[in-house]
Structure formats: C-alpha cells, structure tokens
Design brief:
The protein has about 425 residues and is of the alpha/beta class. Helices cover about 30% and strands about 25% of the residues. α4 runs parallel beside α6 (about 165-175), α5 runs parallel beside α6 (about 165-175) and α8 (about 235-250) runs parallel beside α12 (about 375-385). It is built from 14 helices and 24 strands. The protein is elongated, with a radius of gyration of 21 Å. The chain has a 4-stranded mixed sheet. The protein has a 4-stranded mixed sheet with strand order 2-15-17-16. A 4-stranded mixed sheet has the order 4-5-3-14. The chain folds into 2 domains: about 5-20 and about 235-420, UDP-n-acetylglucosamine1-carboxyvinyl-transferase, Chain (Alpha-beta prism), CATH 3.65.10; about 20-230, Enolpyruvate transferase domain (UDP-n-acetylglucosamine1-carboxyvinyl-transferase, Chain, Alpha-beta prism). It binds ligand EPZ. The site of ligand EPZ has 25 residues, from α1, α5, α6 and α12. Ligand EPZ binds near residues 26, 121, 123, 127 and 374.
Length: about 425
Amino acid sequence: MDSILVTGNGPLNGQIPIAGAKNACLTLMPATLLSEEPLTLTNAPRLSDIKTMTALLQSLGAEVSSLQDGQVLAMSSHDLTSQTADYEIVRKMRASNLVLGPLLARFGQAVVSLPGGCAIGARPMDLHVEGLEALGAEIDLKDGYLHAKATGGLKGAVHEMRFASVGATENIVMAATLAKGTTVLKNAAREPEIVDLIECLRKMGAQISGEGTSTIEIQGVDRLHGATHQVVTDRIELGTYMLAPAMCGGEVELLGGRMSLVESFAKKLDAAGVHVEETRSGLKVARKNGRVSAVDVVTEPFPGFPTDLQAQMMALMCTAEGTSVLEERIFENRFMHAPELVRMGANIEVHGGTATVTGVERLKGAPVMATDLRASVSLILAGMAAEGETTVSRVYHLDRGYEHVVRKLEGVGAKIERIKGQ
Ligand code: EPZ
C-alpha cells in the first residue's frame, strides 16, 4: 500500500484547480439508468470512486466510456442486462445504493445489496426504503439484499423524511421523475450536489422544482431523454484546500471555487482569523495575521457546517489559539483522525460525538494512518504545518476523493511525495 511523505515547509503560494464534485458525480452517473438515451457528464473528477461506479453501471449492462483523461463520461443504458447491484461492489462504496431509485423507476424492479457499515458509521438505508415505499414500491430484505418491486410502476405521493438524508433524497427524487402523478418530498436535503442532480434531470426532461430547499416537487413524466451536463465544483475539495494556507500561512487561490458552495465554512474560517475573498477565477485564502483562533463547530445538513470538512477543520484547530469544541451530529463515529493527530502532539479529548481541542504551538511530524477519506487529508494538512516529517499510510482512502493531491499541493509549495508501497 502506498503512503505519502509530507515535510513541514512554511507558507504556501499559488493556485489550486478544484475538480468536479465526487458526491455530485456519484448521483449523476446512476441518473443515466433513467433514460435509454445517452447522458454525458463533463468536468468529472478522476477518482477511484468514479471507477467503482463505472464498474457497477457496466455490471448492469450500461455503456460507460471515460474520455479526455476521465474528465468526460459518456454513458448509455439503452440495453441493460441486469437490475442487480452486487454486494462485492456495493460494500466498497455506499453510493452504489443510488442505482436503486432509477432501476425501480425505469424497470419496476431492482435488487441492491445493503452496503453494510463503514468506518464512520452504520449507514443504514431505512430512509431510502421509506421514501420509495411511499411511492408504491414493495421492498423486502433477503440475504443482505433489498428486493424492490413496483409492479404497475411508481405513483407520486407526499412524503416527509424523518431526517434530511442526502442519498435518500437523491434516490427518491430520481425515482419520482418517472412515477405517475406528483410527488412532494418534505424535509429534503439541500446540498449543492442535489441541486446539480436536479438541474441535470431537468435537462433530461424531468419536471422538478424546489431544489436547494427542504420541499422538492416532482411531476412524473413518461420518459426522460438524453443530456449533457457539467458536474458542479467539489465544495469539499474546495474547503479542504482552503485550509492549506490557513494552516501553513501564505496565500492560495482555489480556481473554480465560489463562496456560495462554502458559505458556512468560510464564515467559520473568518471567525478563526482566515480571510476568504471571492475573485473572478475562484476563492483567495490567507490568514489575517499569525496564529488562528479557536472556534467551535457543529456539523449539520447543508447549509450548516459540512460533516465532510470536520476532520480537516479539526487539524486547523490543533494549532489554534485557545480551545475548540467540535460536535459531529451527522455520523456516529467520525473522529478516527483524532488519535492520529494526537500522535503528532495535538491535545484532543473525545467524548461520544464531541471533540475538545486545545491548540498547541506546533505539531510534530510522525508516522500516522489514514482511517477514512476525509481523515486521510486532514493528516496531510497537519503534516504540512508540522515540524519535521509525517508519513501517512493507507492512502488508498485518499484516492477515493482527491485527484492528483500531491501534484496540487506541490504546486503551491508543499513538500510532499507519494511513496510506492511494497
Ligand atoms: C452523503 O452520504 C455523502 N456521500 C457523504 O460524503 C456525506 O458525508 C453525507 O452525504 C452527509 O452530507 C455521497 O454523497 C456519495 P446521509 P449519505 O444519507 O447520502 C443516516 C464523503 O466523505 N441515515 O445524508 O450516505 C446516516 O447513517 C462522504 O464524501 C440513516 O439513518 O449521507 C448518517 O448518520 C462520507 N438512514 C446520516 O443519516 C438512511 O436511510 C447522514 O446520512 C440514510 C442515512
């Protein structure tokens, strides 16, 4: 397994291009199953999760061609041969469950493996099932697979989700596009990736309104046609790299970044003493003066502070002036980066869903282990600001969500290299 060697190397300067959003692309790709006409995505990120979703769609009989070095995905599901999403693929990537709604809507049946737990939590699918059952689906769990049927097709309904789940919103919205009649989805998630999905579905002929709000209304149509859609900028990659100059000093411009994607995160950074300014080509980030100040964080559904930036923010708080309390309200086990940061000299106490971080002057490089996607990059950021060398192992986690991370950080002056594993 590869590892990444980082050496603390002072202020950063330059530009980092931000890629298309992994979590938008992972819901846009299954949308191809809703139509027998081609769907083409541009600005797609080059990530292992995208390769996993490609393999899943191909296992169903869809054609997926990766063009222009992976930035364009030309897809067609005209002749599907299967409606079963196999455990072997789904267990690797939970987002595989996003084929459930589209398969059910187009074919009236789907067999999708339950993903099983992952490092950050149990991640059940009850909210997906409740929503699809509200549309008339019959769903049974057998041998670890969800067997879903909608004989006679799905029917529009009014449904209120118990929690604003991102994935459940995506599955239900995609299914409702081909249901008979009107669906009103209440307490829907408002993430920009859902807005992006709905904009793409509308290009395919779907009748949807309310994206970005808690109430989404969908008028079912008989069929959807093909489209070409540009994947929205990745706000989590954007937020992650905004922390690089915040931790190391200097000034970095994140190309393609827009304030609207990271509003609550930018506000938190501003309160901590980090200046974020929108330019014509992106977001420019620099510390206002020396050491940042500790701020408290509570993770919430969008537009609140993103759970996917909690680990990275914790890395910043490790060397902030004062004490910061980070409360993780979305996942039940998302502090696995804390003990690794403690190995680097951080002062962190974790009690259940709350981590209390008392800032130290400077972290010290050490060998650490990546435990999940966002934890892996928080350790790299910490290593860039630490004294001495840090080796981050198990970086396959990183490849799931960050393209060319070494090249992008090297480009602004970080001392970082990838060490090939045995
Ligand atoms: C999406 O996961 C993202 N993944 C996650 O990003 C992100 O952390 C999460 O939304 C929250 O923003 C993709 O978009 C591919 P949820 P998702 O359904 O849809 C519970 C990353 O790092 N829940 O909003 O799975 C669940 O257990 C990944 O890129 C149920 O209880 O998130 C969790 O505690 C990590 N029942 C909470 O809701 C359900 O049926 C949020 O889950 C579904 C979810």
